[in-house]
């Protein structure tokens, strides 16, 4: 027989539906539900339909109706009813023995599912772009620790492209990015906003200029920049695309801290998040250079793989970011 012939539906199967699927559908109609089986076990323990009904939390008429429905479904009488109580028939005793195995298996299934939920809720893997990881997440994670002291949190920091890769690979439960839009394959929500600032050391000529920079001059000047794939670089590339695009970077560095250190040392002007330069501006180690005619603003987003919103500790962390 060919493999195609072997896959044909049986005469009793709907066309295009495998026998296994049909078998499972029929089984669901022939086997009583778990609640009915638990009720039957309670009747066996108490010898009374009323006592069994009280144990499972339903009325006696409802319990009687459920037992009769199960008898019709199975095609056998399960109980002998009398004023003195309810006694299992021989068939009822056999069905009760089978029911006990099913209920025990269901209890084991439930215990396993609870263990899986407990394992999920005992850890949280976060991936975040550099600015968020360095300047916002510490506060959020401290607040999460107060709510979930038993949750172990791991944080992976990288640029926005790396965050998306980790989420799509299943290596993180929730991520935070700084780019212009939600990366492909992810869903997200805006949790905060940020502005980028052009900064330079006090010794740089821009620190003494009296008029703002225009976009063309900024675009034409070699800058100390984050690498491609970072949220900062994405926003800057888009903002200056209409003004000739960015000049070849003076330096291209992989972290906000490294860019900031290079600017403070006088290597050249840089573009950094306002979140990252508060102390340096206050101490005059860096000077903010006004720019006109270009919007250097971005949304900060929480992201996760396309589908339902995160649950467990990831959900709690999201609620804290928007508090």
Q: Which CATH architecture of the largest domain would you pick?
A: 3-Layer(aba) Sandwich
State the share of residues found in helices, binned by percent: 40-55%
User: pLDDT average, as an integer?
Assistant: 86
Largest pleated sheet? 7 strands, mixed
End-to-end Cα distance, whole Å, is 66 Å
Proportion of strand residues = 15-25%
Instruction: Please report the number of helical segments.
Output: 14
Question: How many domains make up the 3D coordinates?
Answer: 2
Regions with little confidence, pLDDT below 50 for 5+ residues = 1-11, 20-24
One letter per element, helices H and strands E, the order comes to HHHHHEEHEHHEHEEHEHEHEHEEH
Task: Tally the beta strands.
Answer: 11
Overall CATH class of the largest domain: Alpha Beta
Kindly provide the radius of gyration, computed on alpha-carbon positions and rounded to a whole number of angstroms: 33 Å
Structural class by helix and strand composition: alpha/beta
Bulk shape:
rod-shaped
Q: What is the CATH topology descriptor of the largest domain?
A: D-Maltodextrin-Binding Protein, domain 2
Biased composition (Basic and acidic residues): 1-10
Pfam families: HTH_1, LysR_substrate
Domain HTH lysR-type: 32-89
Organism: Streptomyces litmocidini
């Amino acid at each position: 027989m060919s493999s195609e012939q072997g896959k044909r539906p049986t005469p009793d199967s709907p066309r295009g539906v495998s026998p296994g699927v049909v078998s499972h559908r029929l089984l669901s109609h022939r086997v009583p539900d778990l609640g009915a089986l638990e009720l039957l076990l309670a009747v066996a323990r108490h010898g009374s339909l009323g006592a069994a009904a009280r144990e499972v939390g339903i009325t006696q008429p409802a319990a009687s109706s459920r037992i009769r429905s199960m008898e019709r479904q199975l095609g056998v009488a399960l109980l002998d009813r009398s004023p003195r109580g309810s006694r299992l028939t021989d068939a009822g005793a056999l069905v009760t023995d089978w029911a006990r195995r099913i209920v025990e298996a269901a209890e084991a299934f439930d215990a396993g599912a609870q263990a899986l939920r407990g394992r999920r809720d005992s850890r949280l893997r976060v991936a975040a772009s550099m600015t968020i990881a360095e300047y916002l997440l510490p506060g959020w994670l401290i607040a999460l620790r107060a709510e979930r002291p038993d949750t172990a949190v791991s944080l992976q920091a990288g640029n926005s492209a790396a965050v998306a890769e980790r989420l799509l690979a299943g290596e993180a439960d929730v991520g935070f990015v700084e780019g212009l839009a939600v990366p492909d394959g992810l869903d997200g929500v805006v949790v905060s906003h940020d502005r980028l600032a052009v900064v330079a050391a006090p010794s740089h000529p821009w620190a003494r200029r009296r008029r703002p920079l225009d976009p063309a001059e900024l675009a034409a000047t070699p800058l100390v920049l984050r690498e491609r794939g970072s949220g900062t670089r994405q926003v800057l590339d888009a903002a200056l695309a209409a003004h000739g695009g960015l000049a070849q970077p003076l330096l291209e560095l992989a972290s906000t801290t490294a860019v900031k250190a290079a600017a403070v040392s006088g290597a050249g002007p840089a573009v950094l998040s306002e979140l990252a330069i508060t102390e340096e501006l206050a101490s005059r180690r860096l000077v903010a250079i006004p720019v006109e005619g270009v919007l250097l603003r971005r949304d900060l987003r929480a992201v996760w793989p396309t589908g339902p919103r995160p649950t467990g500790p990831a959900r709690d962390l999201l609620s804290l970011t928007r508090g």
